[in-house]
Each structure stands twice: as structure tokens, then as C-alpha cells.
Design a protein that fits this description.
The complex is a heterodimer of chains A (1140) and B (365). Chain A is an alpha+beta fold and 1140 residues long. The radius of gyration of chain B is 20 Å and the shape is globular. Chain B has 4 domains: 1-78, Translation Initiation Factor IF3 (2-Layer Sandwich); 81-174, UDP-n-acetylglucosamine1-carboxyvinyl-transferase, Chain (Alpha-beta prism), CATH 3.65.10; 187-283, 2-Layer Sandwich (Dihydrodipicolinate Reductase, domain 2); 288-353, Translation Initiation Factor IF3, CATH 3.30.110. The chains are: A alpha+beta (1140), B alpha+beta (365). Chain B: Residues 9-335 form the RNA 3'-terminal phosphate cyclase domain.
């Protein structure tokens, strides 16, 4: 094609554009921060801005936490999908898996691991509606997709789950609203979204992410919505949670039963099983020998741990130069419990699903993992034995030449006989990695094969595996056999008589002293005799010799691999030290752990043991220390002091302290007295000083870090050190030293697992292996701060069993509630207080103080109410509990003197009284007193004094404190062992048992309620005897006056009226009568009017009522129709709902 | 119910102390059998029984079972309680024997420990209280145990009759700091305490003089204190001794001591002590050979990070200790030569991954 020519661009020379350009050119472009733009307008504003900035900075800060997940191969992030049933969890899971792997799952069970990015993997797990599963998932999930039915609203499970999360460290939560397509009206939809969002935010935090998913297309959510969700998931940052950051744990994605078939058959499947669990390690390093807890099963011992090849590896650097993940890598998915790739791993079998008709020849057709595996098995041409024979076993990882098995079968068998003991101890450590064979790679083919293979291996190459160790060390010892022997020769520790053969010491370093060896004992003898004469010569030579010997000793020791000597041999410590000091006859060469040596030294050790005492100070050996009389030897030490003679070191001494560790490091190197090295060190030091000066000169503030920065920096440095320290070591030794790092895919073999776990295995229930800290294996009394949940309807009662979810564990225990009584005692409470924290003490497995927990009355799904009954935090751990219960002892006086009274019925014996002598007592009316002494006659009666005279009717009581211990009851929730996993019920309450057994509560006759009959109190008249009355003074005499029975003066008189008066009275009477009559008539009339009105009203009312009745009838008919329709719809959807 | 955690199993009377300490710290029961079973006088000695009693007293809920013959013991550890404890040590061992395990345990107690011990303050088998005060306690400070850490020597008591009294105060910590101590530095000062009780006070001055004559060639910064207790505070038997320590620029401390023996002049004692100190300095490392156990234990108990420390070669006790640690905590040390380039150095670099031991006993308020 011809080159097309375009018209060249001509910039404008005039006009607006040109002006703009030229202006822009003239003006210097602003770089960086424009001071003026953000300058405050006033001083006060500046002040406020400054303050705000500081405050905002502070809110950014969090307590620095160490993140122990490795950067290079982090474990997959666990994304849990949680929600009530029917909300669309499985649909979401399938959609997400489809989004990441382009595969459609038929059945999503168990954890599903996918590669989501170049440095990121995700394990999806769906959480079913069982409370046990919710608790377990809440403990391990890094991100929770909390699904809510938008058309219905929040349900009880959602809130229960959020509360579980809160008490176990809150992971990130994204809300997902589904079923929004069921809301037809736009306004209602908007309002619903808003309301739900508001509630969600109050529950989590303001601004928490809530996702909306509309309807389902092709059994999946719309692709673009899922894409958005996956983007949110991928940018999520995770803050390490304290509990998970201090415990190793693993979410098992595969389970296998290794118990021998025969054993299962003979025990009819009831024997304890050996089970392997597979999964990615998370949290901290898992050390072999750690005890683990499998929630729902119990505490178990790990028989072995083995790192396996990553089944879902991250793309490695060379294959992935691109920014994005390649399409090929996207297909990686690891879900052994689901049906991915046509392979389903059952508990003890692997099923391979071959679609369509299967022919051997069609190799070009795409093959699944399983198919490939079967075909590989078919392809095997040689027997296992041949394969073993052909396999190349390398003694050490870096050995260049492999051992050949065929070379000497007879020799090997001998060796195996001899070193059986060693083998046994080391078999666990050295099983997998040393053999590079084809068989190791597919760990999925039956474990039986693997087992066979391993035993074969043991038979074939025992000598290779007898002593797994690092290569460089043993070889170097092999190379220098002579040094061992020479060492003894010049050992000044032996005696001061080594001079005989020492004249040719110079040759020793050359290493041809082998010839001397046989003479050595004799030369020693000679020396003993000679020593007296030759003292001057000996003395003159001593320092150099001592130094030479020291140097040589050192050289020899450098070849000693202490790690190996200490951990991988059966030599006793004194033998190790002895072998260091041993003379030539010791013959500790490379194969020093050979049998002869072993036996000889043991004998020696036995002799020593007789007088050996456990001392922390080695006895001073005056003879040995005599060596220090020598001036030269003394001088040889000068360089270890700051005033050291070493020319360069001398003047620097004083500076060292100031210069800090780096300077010292620099200084440390110039020990070698090498000119070049010294110059280099000096240059380094200068450089350091210069940098320091520059830093301080340029910006004195920048070099100064605040506390937060300093802490973070320190953590980063420590992490760097952690990484660097064990970098070069081979993986097995590394696992020994630091355990298995998080991110590795491991196989954990568990012993003595209850058979029910296997028999009732259900992949939809997560299996977690949680590592326990050494202190968490113990049991004790835990004191916790607890608060009843405000939504829980039942108050908690002391001594009622409660299920705790604490640490990894779920268990039932019996708490005793208490409150701190003025810091004097812990006082028992019968019930938990309302809206207040109290303490609870119970027996159980120890958790570290500050661990959160939640408590439940029952884990069963049938309960309608809110199931979380309480939440709290662990405060203290002890082996005994000090809780006091208030005890009131009551008694009654039976004889009262002035201030003294005899009290009975409080105690039953004089001994009890004696115990309480001097105790404070009180009457109901508040008179205080004291127990004095027991009385002889009625048992348990005593004399007491009060501050005033008490009454016979008073009750006397004594307030005492009785110490109570919580019951030693611990019952792990073994929900995974049940066939119906949600139906676990632990110890029941007495009432529950009675109800279920149909028993009646036994009643005490005295406790029954009877009607209280209170007869009116009658008071007898006070009768004062006549004699006494007579004697009384007038004021005290009862003033009793007889009722007057005679007529009074006025009564006796007749009244005669005057005529005018009569008239007036009559008139008044008449007027009153008239008035009365008038009023009566008026009232009658009013009543008439009223009656008429009432009648009228009644009529109206009746009319109205009829109308109403009709209306209601109409309405009810309509409503009934509606209800009928709705119920028909409901039964169509068939969903169980509980209203929040 | 509570499952029995797998018990640690040991045999022999040696290394009893650190085995008990490991058991109490790890919470695993320990079973030790064949305690001097072949001896003419089989079973536990009085001081070992006394130690068990002391451990029982500073813990809560510890169950100790001693077999009838005394050749086997079973210890089921409780929690370390701390608090105010007084203990009379038998005269067969010095206070150092009892204090050493207590120092290892005390930082992990529920309450700060205030322990009063009575007995012999210094003998030639165990560290004297002077060295514990001046050397052992600074080692604890490397791990962040410092506030309120103190050893008060109330009275001195020499063997055989003792009569000394010390008070040990230790705070309770939450977690130990990770140690990273690889720079040895150079000796910058030498300090010493020469004590004498119930003998001529000049003895102590004579020791100082001799020691100075040896050490003055290296460094001028030498202070040797003469510590003479009189009257009530001087115990029941005569004795004297010299404890020396050398501190380097990085804070590493080397120590040595020698104590009076019948028929040996104070000058010879001073010679012994000074030379032992030189020997110790020559051995090198950042940690004195007497304190290897303590430092290694605290490295194991540190947070879940790599702790490193440069030390001289392990002693017999250290080797056994490392093996026992592996059994109790499953921790293996990496031990490599400290200076790869320098063939003359015997120093080793010990590094390990801490188990993240958190003081579970401490009460949260």
C-alpha cells in the first residue's frame, strides 16, 4: 500500500491559541506542592487545620501487628459465603468459581481453591446453616460474604453470625443482597436497600461495603456483577487478627482414612482411625509435635506432618512476565471434595468420572486429571521393585553422584541389621524427600501404594538414611581425619607434659602428622619424665604452642557440626565434650557414631556418673589455669580489650560506644590485620558517618522516627531476619528448626481419631485443624468477664451448663457467676445481672488471657430465639477458684437478759460455735452483737451480747461466707461425629430431662403455696385493777366516763314559741317545700327530654352499626382471598423463615 | 474430661533442675526415674527434695509424687503463682542452686515474685549470689525483664554452716523480647567483688591486689569492691572469695569466681579467679558459659521470630538442655560457627525460632 501523506501540522502564530501557548511557555510551570493554594486564611484557621490534620493522622494509626504470612507464597485467602438457607450461597459460589476458573461445578462441596491473581489464591467455602459450622467458619475466614435476602430482610442467623465474628476477632465482611428482583416497585427497592444498608452499617461500621445482586441467569448471578464483586475481593487488604497470628491452623480440603482395612473389618468399623488431612497451613509456623484441636472432634496428636507439592500453585515468575494472569493459569482449581476435573475424593476412595465412552487410543482428546492418572498407571511397564532398583538415591540434596542400590546388596543388608535403631528414630524425618522417584509425585494414588513403597525404600537403602545430615559437614570431617588425632597431642588441658612430640608442631597444620600417631602414648610418657629438666624450653614455647593448639582445636571444632552432634546422635553430652577433648585413641572420625566408639565411651560415662553432681559451675582446674602464668599467652588476649594492642583498634576504643553497632561491625572485620581489609573497613565507616551527617544536616526531623514508625521498622527488620536466617537450609532441616511455614500444602496424619468422624463425614461441614500453644493443652479454672447478650431471652443461672466457643474449641462447661465485692472477695451470683458485666469461673481448657469467646445455651437449630446467650473475654487462669457464697445463719433468742441473750437454733454443736466465737451477729431490727461462748445445755446454743436489749420476737442472724468450687466438667462439642450434625446436645438441665422423660418435679410439702389466712387481730380491753387505779395519780388514771343515760338539761326543757316566730318558721317551711317541689318537677322534665334524646341516639347507632358490619364483612372476604393466595405461593417456595 | 498430656520422660539425677523448669513452663508432666538407683545411697538428696518443695511453693496446683525409694519422681505442674515466698535451703547446696531455676520461672508468674532464701550464699559448685546479682540479672534485662528486678544480699553465709539470706524480686512479664546478640564487642571494664566474712578483712584487700596485678595490663578501668560483712550479717562460718566480671562495649558480660578453700592463700584464690576470667574471655561469645542455659531457654520462649546469639561452645549441661528443650517444646537450634572466615574462632552462633510463649498465668485487669 502506498504511503499516505498527511498535511503537516502548522502551529498558530496568532490568535487566542497562540496567546495561550506563549503565555504557558512564559510562565514557569508549578512543580509539586503549591504552598499558596492551601495556605490558611487566618491564624485561627491554620490552627484548626493543623489540629485536624494531626487528629486525622492519629486515626490512621493502629497498634502495629506483625504479619506472619510470607510474602512469596502466601496461603490462599479464605472467603466464606455465609447466610440463611435459600439465600443463594451456592449460586454465588458457583458464579465466583466460574468467574475465576471458567468451570461450572455441579456440586460445590468443601473448600474450593482457585488462583485469582499472580500472587493471590482464594479458597472459597460455603457455610451451611448449622451454628457449629458458623462458629468454625467465623474463626478461620479472612473475608466473609454475608448474604442477605433483600426481599425479606435480616434474619436471625445473620445477627448470630455477626456476634460470633465479634467475639473471635472480626474478619472483613462484605454484605451481599440477593433476591432484589423480587421487589418490583422501584421506590420500594430503593427504600429497602436504604433500610438494609443502614442496619448493616450499624452492625459492622459506617460505610461497610454492601453489594447488590439482581436476579439469576442460567443458574448464576449476572457476570458483570460477579466481576465487580471479584474485583472487590481482590483489592481487599487483611489486617492480621491476633488469635490467628499466634496459632497455626489449617482448613482441611481433603480427608483420607489410613486405617488398615483388616482392622476396620475385625472391629466392625468401630476402631479408632488414623486419618490424614490435607490443606494449606495458615497463621504461624506449624511445628511437628504440636498438639492440635479439630473443632467438633477434640484434641488430637499429630503423628506426622509432611509438606506436599502445591496442588494449586501460583504462577511462577518466569512463566508469568505479564501483568495479568494468563488464561491457562486461570483454569487451576483445587477442590478435592467437589467434582472438579472428574475426580472426587471420597473419605477412602477416589472416583474418576469419565464422560462419554472411554477409549485408550484417543490421546488427542482432552483428558481430565483422573483420566490421565489412570492411563499413567496403565502405562507402567516395570514393577515396583524394578522402579526402586532404578531409582537414584542421593545421600544429600546436593550430592552430585547418586548411590547405586545394586552395588552391594549384601553389605547393605548387613548395615541395615546393625543400624536398625537409628533407622527407626529417623524414619519419620527422612521419608519423603530423599528419594527422587516418579512415585512420589502423584500422592493421590492410593496410600497403600505409598506405604508399600516406603517400606521397600527402607529395605533398600538403610545406610543412606541412618543419619540424615547436612552434606558439607560430614564430608569435611572425612577430609581431615588427622586433625582429630593430633588435637589430643597438644592439648594443654591434659597435663603440662605434652612437649615430647611437640617440636615438629609446625608440621601439624600441614597435616602429615599421621605418622606420629602410633608413638604418641610413649612420647607422653617420655615427656613426663623429661619435663623437670626442660622447663625453660617448655615455658618459652608454651604460649605459641598453646595458641597453636587453640587454633587447631578451633579448626577441628569448626568441622564439628554441633547441630548434628546434639540432635542427631545418641552420644551423651559428656561424651560429646569428651570426644572433643579426647586423645588419639578416641578415633572420633567422621563415622564417629560407629559402634565401637559408642560402646567405649559409654563405659567411661558410667564411671563418671558416680561422682557427678548437678553443678552450674565447672570446678576450677588450677593446673589448667597455670597456663596463664605465661606472659605471651596473656598478651595474646590483648586484642579482646578496648585498649587492645592491635594498632588500628587502639584509638577507636572510646568511639565505639558512640558509633553504634554498625561501626563495631565495621571494626570487627579489621581484626584480621589485613591492610586492604582495614582500608575497606575504614572506608565503610567513613561512609556511614558521612551518611549520618548528611541525614542530620539535611533534615534533622527526617532521621528521627516517631514511636509508631520505629515499631514498624523494627518489625520489618525482624521479619527480614526471620526470612534470611534459614534461607539456605534444605527444607527438611528447616522444617525441623522452624516448623512448616504458612502457605505450604501439608498432609497431617492424626492418630486415634474417633471412627464416627469418618463414618459420618459430610464435606459441607468444614474440618479445621487448629494448633494449640503449649499452655492451651492444659486444663484449669478460667475466670472470664461475661455479659449476657441483650437479645438473649434467658438469664443465665449459676451451675447451669453453658456451651463456650473459645479459641479453637467449642465445649460445654458449668460456670459460676460472681461479682467483685469491694475488692475483698468474689461473691457468687445466682443469676447474671442485667445489662452488666460480671465474672464467670469455670473449669476448662486454658486459653490465654484476653481471648474473646461467646457462649450459647444450645447449638441446636430448632431454637427460635437468638442463640448467642453471652459474650466475654478471658481474664485469668488458675488451678483453684476463690468464689464465696453468702450464707446467713439464723437463730432465735430463748432467754434475754439486759444486753445478753441466749441464742439457739443457729448451730448444732458447741464445736461450731467455737469456730464462730467473736463473730458479728445482728438482729432484724438492726441491733449488732457478738457471739460469745457456747452454752452447755441445748446443743449449739450460745451466749451473745448486743448493743441493746433484744426482743424475744427478734431473729438473730450471722452473715458468713462459704467458698465454692466450680464443678470439674468439660464436655467438648463433638458435632462432627454425629450423623445429624446440628443435633448435638450436651448435658441437659434437670428441667429439660424431666420434661423429656415425662417426669414430674418432686415437690416439697413445705414449699407448696397455701392460702394465707390472716384473722383480724383483736385487742382486749385494758383493765386496770381498781386498787391500782386508786393508787395512781390523777394524771395517770384511766379517764373512763360512763355514757350519759339521763336527759340533758336542754332535752328536759319544753320550748314554747312566740306567735310571730311560729309564723316565720311556718312560712320558711312552706317556701322550702315549694322550692323542693319545683326542683323535682324540673328534674322530671329534664329526664324526659333526655330519654327522648337517648332513644334517638340509639336509633342512629343501630343504623351505623349495620353499615359497619357490612363493611367489615366485605373487607374480611377480600382479606381471606388474599391470604389463601399467599399461602399457596408460600408453599410453592417452601422456605422456612424466622422473623427477626 | 482432661486428657493427660504426654508426659516428659527422663532418667538419672543429673540435669534435674532444668528438666523441672521445662516441665513447669511447658505444662507437661515430667517423670524422672533411676535417680541414683545404682548408688549406695539411692534416691533424691535433701537439696533436691528441698528444690521440689520450693517449686511447689512458688506454683499453684503442682502435684509432686516421689516414689517410696526416692529414685523416681512425677511432677504435674501447676501455674506459677509468685508472690511472697520464704524458703530455707539445706546446707548441702548453696542458694545459687535454688535460685537458678527460680530465675528461669519467675518472669512467668502470676504475681511479681518476692522470694527470700536462707542458706549458703556462695560455694564452689554453684554460682554465688554476687555473680547472680551482677551477671545473671543483666542477662535477664536483654529479654526485657528489668523493672523491679533485684537481688538483695541481706546476709552472707559461707559453707559449711551458712546463715546467709538473700531476697530475690522479679516482675511478671507478658512476653520476652527476641534476642539478637551477635556483636561481642571488646572488654571495656572489669568489676569485681571480693567478699570476706568472719576472717581478717585484709584478706579481701590481698585478693584485690593480686587480681589487679594480673588484669591491670589490659585495661585501667578496674574496680574491685571489697565487701566485708560483719556481725549478724556475716553468717556462721568464715570464708572469703573473689567474683570478677568483664563487660564489653556491647554489654556482653563474662564472669569467673573463686572461693576460699582450706589451706589455700587468698592470693592463690585471686589468681584462680583472674585466670578463670581470662579463660572465659578467651572462650568468647556474647554470653558467659555459666549462663548459656538461661539465655537459650529465654530464646526459645521468645516471640515467634528468629533469635540469635553468639556464644562459646556448649557445655555438657547445655547439650543436654538443648536435647531436653527439643523434647519439651519441639525447638531445635541452628548452631553454626559465628565467623566463617576466621578459623581461629571457637564461637558459635545459636539461632532458633521462638515458640511465642505468652505468660498465660498473668491476670488481665
Amino acid at each position: 500500500m502506498e504511503q499516505q501523506t498527511h498535511k503537516a501540522h502548522r502551529p498558530a502564530h496568532s490568535g487566542a491559541k497562540a496567546d495561550k501557548k506563549s503565555k504557558g511557555k512564559d510562565k514557569e510551570k508549578q512543580h509539586g506542592f503549591n504552598e499558596k493554594a492551601f495556605a490558611p486564611k487566618s491564624g485561627r484557621r491554620a490552627d484548626r487545620q493543623g489540629r485536624r490534620k494531626v487528629e486525622r493522622d492519629q486515626t490512621r494509626l493502629h497498634v502495629p501487628l506483625v504479619d506472619r504470612t510470607p510474602d512469596d507464597q502466601p496461603p490462599p485467602v479464605i472467603v466464606a459465603i455465609v447466610g440463611p438457607p435459600g439465600v443463594g450461597k451456592t449460586t454465588l459460589l458457583k458464579s465466583l468459581v466460574r468467574r475465576y476458573t471458567k468451570q461450572t461445578l455441579n456440586e460445590a462441596k468443601g473448600p474450593i481453591t482457585v488462583v485469582s491473581g499472580k500472587k493471590k489464591r482464594i479458597t472459597f467455602i460455603e457455610c451451611n446453616n448449622d451454628l457449629n459450622s458458623m462458629i468454625d467458619v467465623g474463626k478461620i475466614a479472612d473475608l466473609v460474604l454475608l448474604m442477605i435476602d433483600g426481599s425479606y430482610g435480616f434474619e436471625m442467623e445473620t445477627f448470630e453470625f455477626l456476634n460470633i465474628l465479634q467475639s473471635h476477632g472480626f474478619p472483613k465482611v462484605i454484605g451481599v443482597l440477593t433476591h432484589l428482583d423480587l421487589i418490583k416497585k422501584a421506590a420500594t427497592l430503593r427504600a429497602t436497600k436504604k433500610a438494609l444498608k443502614k442496619r448493616f452499617w450499624t452492625e459492622i461500621y459506617q460505610g461497610a461495603k454492601l453489594f447488590y445482586l439482581s436476579g439469576v441467569i442460567n443458574g448464576r448471578y449476572p457476570d458483570n456483577e460477579i466481576l465487580n464483586l471479584s474485583r472487590f475481593i481482590s483489592v481487599m487488604k487483611f489486617r492480621p487478627l491476633v488469635f490467628r497470628n499466634s496459632h497455626p491452623y489449617l482448613l482441611a480440603d481433603r480427608l483420607e482414612d489410613l486405617t488398615p482395612r483388616e482392622q476396620i473389618r475385625t472391629s466392625k468399623g468401630k476402631c479408632d482411625r488414623t486419618v490424614t488431612l490435607y490443606g494449606y497451613l495458615r497463621g504461624t509456623n506449624l511445628r511437628p509435635g504440636t498438639k492440635v484441636h479439630v473443632p467438633g472432634v477434640g484434641d488430637l496428636n499429630m503423628k506426622s506432618v509432611a509438606a506436599l507439592g502445591d496442588p494449586c500453585p501460583l504462577p511462577d515468575a518466569d512463566s508469568e512476565k505479564r501483568r495479568k494472569l494468563s488464561e491457562k493459569k486461570k483454569l487451576l482449581v483445587h477442590a478435592p471434595m467437589s467434582d472438579v476435573g472428574g475426580v472426587v475424593y471420597d473419605k477412602d476412595a477416589v472416583y474418576i468420572n469419565v464422560p462419554g465412552s472411554f477409549t485408550r487410543g484417543a490421546t488427542d482428546a482432552p483428558q481430565g486429571e483422573g483420566e490421565q492418572m489412570v492411563m499413567d498407571l496403565q502405562d507402567v511397564k516395570s514393577t515396583l521393585e524394578d522402579a526402586v532398583a532404578k531409582s537414584q538415591i542421593r545421600l544429600f540434596g546436593s550430592s552430585s553422584k547418586p548411590l547405586s542400590v545394586q552395588a552391594g546388596p549384601s553389605r547393605l543388608s548387613d548395615a541395615s541389621d546393625e543400624s536398625e535403631g537409628d533407622e527407626e528414630s529417623d524414619a519419620g524425618e527422612g521419608s519423603d524427600s530423599e528419594v527422587a522417584s516418579d512415585f512420589d509425585s502423584d500422592e493421590s494414588d492410593g496410600d497403600l501404594d505409598e506405604g508399600d513403597y516406603e517400606t521397600d525404600e527402607d529395605g533398600a537403602g538403610p545406610s543412606d538414611r541412618g543419619r540424615p545430615s547436612r552434606r558439607n559437614v560430614s564430608r569435611s570431617m572425612q577430609a581431615l581425619p588427622s586433625h582429630d588425632r593430633q588435637r589430643g597431642e597438644v592439648d594443654y588441658a591434659d597435663s603440662d607434659s605434652d612437649l615430647g612430640g611437640d617440636d615438629d608442631d609446625g608440621a601439624l597444620i600441614g597435616g602429615d602428622a599421621g605418622a606420629d600417631l602410633p608413638d604418641l602414648p610413649s612420647s607422653d610418657e617420655d615427656a613426663d619424665e623429661d619435663s623437670d629438666e626442660e622447663v625453660p624450653r617448655w615455658k618459652s614455647d608454651l604460649a605459641s604452642k598453646a595458641q597453636a593448639s587453640f587454633a587447631q582445636d578451633v579448626r577441628r571444632n569448626r568441622r564439628r557440626d554441633w547441630t548434628k552432634l546434639i540432635y542427631m546422635t545418641s552420644l551423651s553430652p559428656s561424651e560429646i565434650i569428651a570426644s572433643k577433648n579426647a586423645s588419639a585413641r578416641g578415633a572420633v572420625n567422621d563415622n564417629g557414631m560407629g559402634d565401637e566408639d559408642f560402646f567405649t565411651v559409654v563405659k567411661k560415662a558410667d564411671e563418671q556418673a558416680e561422682e557427678e553432681v548437678d553443678t552450674s559451675k565447672a570446678p576450677l582446674d588450677a593446673q589448667q589455669l597455670k597456663a596463664w602464668e605465661d606472659e605471651e599467652l596473656l598478651d595474646s588476649l590483648r586484642h579482646l580489650f578496648i585498649t587492645g594492642s592491635s594498632a588500628s583498634a587502639a584509638p577507636e576504643g572510646a568511639d565505639d560506644e558512640a558509633a553504634g553497632s554498625d561501626a563495631e561491625e565495621a571494626e570487627g572485620t579489621d581484626e584480621g590485620d589485613n591492610g586492604a581489609a582495614r582500608a575497606a573497613a575504614l572506608a565503610k565507616k567513613k561512609e556511614l558517618l558521612k551518611r549520618k551527617f548528611d541525614e542530620q544536616y539535611d533534615d534533622p526531623e527526617s532521621s528521627k522516627m516517631d514511636f509508631y514508625e520505629e515499631q514498624k521498622d523494627q518489625m520489618a527488620r525482624q521479619l527480614e531476619l526471620n526470612r534470611a536466617e534459614f534461607e539456605g537450609i534444605d527444607p527438611e532441616a528447616r522444617a525441623l528448626v522452624e516448623g512448616y511455614r504458612p502457605g505450604t500444602y501439608v498432609r497431617i496424619e492424626l492418630e486415634n481419631v474417633p471412627c464416627e468422624l469418618i463414618e459420618n463425614f459430610d464435606p459441607s461441614y468444614p474440618i479445621i485443624v487448629g494448633g494449640l500453644l503449649p499452655s492451651e493443652e492444659r486444663f484449669g479454672y478460667l475466670q472470664v468477664r461475661i455479659k449476657r447478650h441483650r437479645w438473649s431471652t434467658k438469664t443465665l443461672k449459676t451451675n447451669d451448663p453453658l456451651i463456650f466457643s473459645m479459641g479453637w474449641r467449642r465445649f460445654q462447661s458449668i460456670p459460676i457467676y460472681s461479682l467483685d465485692d469491694h475488692s475483698i472477695r468474689m461473691r457468687m451470683l445466682k443469676y447474671t445481672p442485667e445489662h452488666m458485666h460480671c465474672y464467670a469461673t469455670f473449669y476448662g481448657p486454658v486459653s490465654l488471657p484476653n481471648t474473646g469467646f461467646c457462649a450459647l445455651n444450645s447449638v441446636s437449630g430448632e431454637l427460635a430465639g437468638f442463640r448467642i446467650s453471652a459474650t466475654g473475654v478471658v481474664l485469668d487462669i488458675d488451678r483453684s477458684a476463690k468464689i464465696m457464697k453468702k450464707l446467713k445463719l439464723t437463730g432465735v433468742p430463748y432467754k434475754i437478759f439486759k444486753n445478753t441473750a441466749f441464742i439457739k437454733d443457729m448451730f448444732t454443736s458447741a464445736l461450731e460455735v467455737a469456730k464462730f466465737e467473736g463473730a458479728n451477729i445482728r438482729t432484724v431490727s438492726g441491733l449488732r452483737g457478738q457471739v460469745k461462748k457456747a452454752l452447755a445445755k441445748p446443743d449449739g446454743a450460745f451466749r451473745a451480747t448486743f448493743e441493746d436489749k433484744i426482743l424475744m420476737s427478734d431473729i438473730v442472724f450471722l452473715r458468713a461466707w462459704y467458698s465454692i468450687q466450680p464443678r470439674k466438667f468439660y464436655n467438648p462439642v463433638t458435632s462432627l461425629l454425629l450423623s445429624h450434625k446440628s443435633e448435638w446436645s450436651g448435658m441437659r438441665l434437670t428441667g429439660q430431662v424431666r420434661r423429656e422423660e415425662g417426669l414430674k418435679t418432686p415437690t416439697n410439702v413445705n414449699s407448696t403455696y397455701k392460702p394465707v389466712e390472716r384473722a383480724p387481730r383483736r385487742f382486749n380491753t385494758l383493765k386496770v385493777p381498781k386498787k391500782l387505779q386508786a393508787a395512781l395519780p390523777y394524771a395517770s388514771k384511766p379517764k373512763l366516763v360512763k355514757a350519759q343515760h339521763r336527759q340533758t338539761y336542754m332535752q328536759k326543757r319544753a320550748v314554747v314559741l312566740e306567735p310571730e316566730e311560729k309564723k316565720a318558721i311556718a312560712l320558711m317551711q312552706q317556701i322550702r317545700a315549694l322550692r323542693k317541689d319545683q326542683v323535682a318537677r324540673r328534674k322530671g322534665k329534664q329526664e324526659e327530654r333526655r330519654a327522648a334524646h337517648r332513644q334517638k341516639l340509639e336509633k342512629e347507632e343501630a343504623k351505623k352499626g349495620e353499615k359497619d358490619k357490612e363493611k367489615r364483612k366485605e373487607y374480611m372476604r377480600a382479606a381471606g382471598m388474599k391470604a389463601k393466595q399467599e399461602s399457596a405461593e408460600e408453599s410453592g417456595r417452601a422456605r422456612k423463615r424466622r422473623k427477626t | 474430661m482432661a486428657q493427660a498430656t504426654n508426659a516428659l520422660q527422663f532418667s538419672g539425677h543429673l540435669h534435674l533442675r532444668h528438666r523441672l523448669v521445662l516441665s513447669i513452663l511447658s505444662g507437661k508432666a515430667v517423670k524422672i526415674d533411676k535417680i541414683r538407683s545404682e548408688d549406695k545411697n539411692p534416691g533424691l538428696r535433701d537439696y533436691e527434695v528441698s528444690l521440689l518443695r520450693l517449686l511447689e511453693r512458688i506454683t499453684n496446683g503442682t502435684i509432686i509424687e516421689i516414689s517410696v525409694t526416692g529414685t523416681a519422681i512425677l511432677l504435674k505442674p501447676g501455674v506459677i503463682a509468685g508472690g511472697l515466698v520464704t524458703h530455707d535451703c539445706p546446707l548441702s547446696r548453696s542458694i545459687g542452686y535454688f535460685l537458678e531455676p527460680v530465675i528461669m520461672l519467675a518472669p512467668f508468674s502470676k504475681k511479681p515474685l518476692q522470694l527470700t532464701l536462707r542458706g549458703i550464699t556462695s560455694d564452689d559448685r554453684d554460682l554465688s549470689v554476687d555473680l547472680i546479682r551482677t551477671v545473671t540479672l543483666p542477662q535477664l534485662e536483654l529479654f526485657g525483664v528489668s523493672d523491679g528486678l533485684e537481688l538483695r544480699i541481706k546476709k552472707r553465709g559461707s559453707p559449711p554452716l551458712g546463715g546467709g539470706e538473700v531476697q530475690y524480686l522479679c516482675p511478671a512479664v507478658k512476653q520476652l523480647k527476641t534476642l539478637n546478640f551477635v556483636e561481642r564487642g571488646k572488654v571495656k571494664r572489669i568489676r569485681g567483688i571480693s567478699h570476706a566474712v568472719r576472717v581478717n578483712p585484709q584478706f579481701s584487700n590481698r585478693m584485690i591486689e593480686v587480681s589487679r596485678s594480673i588484669l591491670n595490663r589490659y585495661i585501667p578501668d578496674i574496680y574491685l569492691y571489697s565487701d566485708v560483712y560483719k556481725g549478724e550479717d556475716s553468717g556462721k562460718s568464715p570464708g572469703y572469695g573473689l567474683s570478677l566480671l568483664a563487660e564489653t562495649t556491647t554489654g556482653a558480660i563474662h564472669c569467673a569466681e573463686a572461693l576460699s578453700q582450706p589451706g589455700v592463700a587468698p592470693e592463690d584464690i585471686a589468681h584462680l579467679a583472674s585466670r578463670a576470667l581470662l579463660q572465659e574471655i578467651q572462650n568468647g561469645g556474647c554470653i558467659d558459659s555459666h549462663h548459656q542455659l538461661l539465655v537459650l531457654l529465654f530464646m526459645v520462649l521468645g516471640s515467634e521470630d528468629v533469635g540469635r546469639c553468639r556464644m562459646s561452645e556448649p557445655t555438657t549441661r547445655t547439650i543436654q538442655f538443648l536435647r531436653d528443650v527439643k523434647e519439651a517444646f519441639g525447638i531445635t537450634f541452628k548452631i553454626v560457627p559465628a565467623e566463617k572466615g576466621d578459623p581461629t574462632s571457637t564461637e558459635l552462633l545459636y539461632s532458633c525460632y521462638g515458640i511465642g510463649y505468652v505468660n498465660a498465668n498473668r491476670t488481665l485487669s
